[in-house]
Amino acid sequence: LLMDNNKILAPVFLLGYLLPVHALTESAPASEFILEGDFLIGGLFDIHQVSDNLSPDRPEVITCSRFQVMRFSVEEINNSTNLLPSVTLGYEMYDHCSDTHNFPSIFNLISVNGSIKPWNKSLTETSKVIALVGTYTSTATLNFAPLFMTDLIPLISYGASSSVFSKKYNFPSFFRTIHPNKDVIKVVLMILKEFNWRWVSFLHIDDDYGRDGRDLFIKSIEDTEICLAYTKGLNTYTNYLNIFQTLISLKVNVIIVFAPEWTAEDLIKAAIKYNITNKVWIAVDAWSLHKTLPKENGIRNIGTVIGIAEPILAIPGFRDFIHSFKALHQQEGMEKDKGKFCEQVCNCTNVTAEDIIHADPSFSFSVYSAVYAIAHALHSVLQCGAGKCNSNVKVHPHMVSLLSFMQFHGPLGIIYFLHFLNIQKTQHFVCFISFFLIRKKRNNLKICKDTEWSDEGSTTCHLRHVEYTPYSSGEAVVIILGAFIFVALAAAVSVLFLHNYKSPVVKSAGGPMCFLILACLSLSCISVFFNFGKPTAASCVLKYFPFFLFFTICIACFLVRSFQIVYVFKIAFKYPILLSWWMKYQGQWLFIIVVFVIQTILLIHGYSSAPPTPGNITHPESKTITLCCNQSFEALSGFLILFSILCFFCFVFSYMGKDFPKNYNEAKSITFCLLLLVIIWIIYATTHLLNHSSYTCNLQKIGLCVYSIQKE
């Protein structure tokens, strides 16, 4: 992803552009650093590192991997039939070994016919380079970036993370494929807060990158309880012994090292030399995945290194590209380019292909993304599609920058790896961090109990407030009062039915079955009273047990009634024997008894195998504990299935009676009540799942369209 200012500016699409490796290496280029093409991309890579006060004829080899990634990316794009079809990309890459001695190569990239020209309003003559990939350090990029900003030539850095480049007014055509320093500092701060580390030091390389990281860190801890005990810039002449003596005198055990790999290597080697032990070293992404430091003799004693790094993403096909190219072309390129400043070669004869592939895990994919971002931008400018591009379009660098890169934007999702290098055990641990860390057992870390909470940055713990719905609360009083009113209404209806028991109306309504239904509806309300107060083992059982048992009997009665109505009108004339059997053996009562026995067995088995227990819901960021009942869904599944089956068949039979005469409207009433029951339970289930952490309204259908609201 091409990113800047926390925005995705250009997505890099990789699928569909990969060809067999043999297609990428059929012909050898004249040089590893130069490739002709319709459009040229510049590249600046720190293959060697030369100090400015030393002679440039003795460079120190740093890495041979990044510029090989750019070569591979260009070759892959040129062999693609989807990206930039019929258009070839070329490159001119330079070994940026010095921040002050490499300006000839910079001028060569922006020159027009060998001359450096000021802003050309007519745009008749522009640089042959449409974009530049590079460079690794913020200081180097800051030195030459203004030269490219003048003509809005896209400059895509794979390593310059200083926040100064986020100022689009000064760097309008600058982009990067890594996260800026402020994102790294956020993760560092998160680590410090999680482990409750308050007394820290900040060591940084003494350049634009390091000073920017220091300033961002100081600003980020202004409103926290984290104290910066000591900070120091590191360079070639740093006296590490004085630094360590100061840290020991200040009793600082947490050391943040904001520096590239070569500076961090000098620091860690000095710590080994001076026998610095039992420290916590926080490594930023520039050196957290260092390959050789874990193998240093004596490194087991320095303490623990916690490293922050971006996810390591493999580049498909790169391994085969390096294996096939290294033996065939490296020596030829060396002989041709020998004698140029910084040697302009990658003398990696003593380095294996595997060493090149794994040399730079943090930044190789950033180079790959930068090249593909340029290719996609050029693809849009040239209006490519259907296997060809518009050859009539005159491409200028500012078109690539303004037209293509800025049309892609969106939120930046950051996922960092936390790389634990446990020096004591010489083991590597890798895990994700998003909001808080999983490994956090430290001797000096104060962790609050589950029943306690702590303010951010605080060293004290406070008891959480316990929340539940007491019987005296307003909502509890209203619900309990509603339950009593319903029971009173059921009792009144029962008295009325009893007084007119021998009337045709009562007989047609079900006779004695009416009293069973009203009694079960009243007993179902028992569950309401156990939804308030502090949960206990008994209340957690009685919270649902009476409802599921007695309301199941109600549904069984409704099922019998709807079946009898449908049977009389639609089935009796076909199967008269069944009606006689049903009447002889009192089939309706037999069915209700069987359902009662089965549901009782299922309830007893479910609650005995996994009884509900009092529990609580506690969120780390909350100051409260919500009391509740822990109920296993598997224990409820048996009688819930039976309950659902009865409801289903009851609905089917009652729906079959929707076209009966008006005098027989009992089936229609049952259908309506069941529909309302289903709607209420869907609302309850949805609300329960979405708001399980707070008080949830438990809507329960009780009888003929009457329900009570139970507070959970």
TrEMBL record:
Organism, scientific name: Cyprinodon variegatus
SUPFAM superfamilies on file: Periplasmic binding protein-like I (SSF53822)
Residue ranges the record marks as coiled coil: none
Record-level Gene Ontology MF annotations: G protein-coupled receptor activity
GO annotations of cellular component type: plasma membrane
Signal peptide (UniProt feature, chain positions): 1-23
UniProt keywords, alphabetically: Cell membrane, G-protein coupled receptor, Glycoprotein, Membrane, Receptor, Signal, Transducer, Transmembrane, Transmembrane helix
Ranges for domain G-protein coupled receptors family 3 profile: 475-689
InterPro entries: ANF_lig-bd_rcpt, GPCR_3, GPCR_3_C, GPCR_3_Ca_sens_rcpt-rel, Peripla_BP_I
Topological type in the membrane: Multi-pass membrane protein
Electron transport listed as a keyword: no
Keyword Signal attached: yes
Pfam families: 7tm_3, ANF_receptor
Positions of transmembrane segments: 476-498, 510-532, 544-569, 589-607, 636-657, 669-690
Organism superkingdom: Eukaryota
Protein name (Swiss-Prot/TrEMBL): G-protein coupled receptors family 3 profile domain-containing protein
Compartment(s): Cell membrane
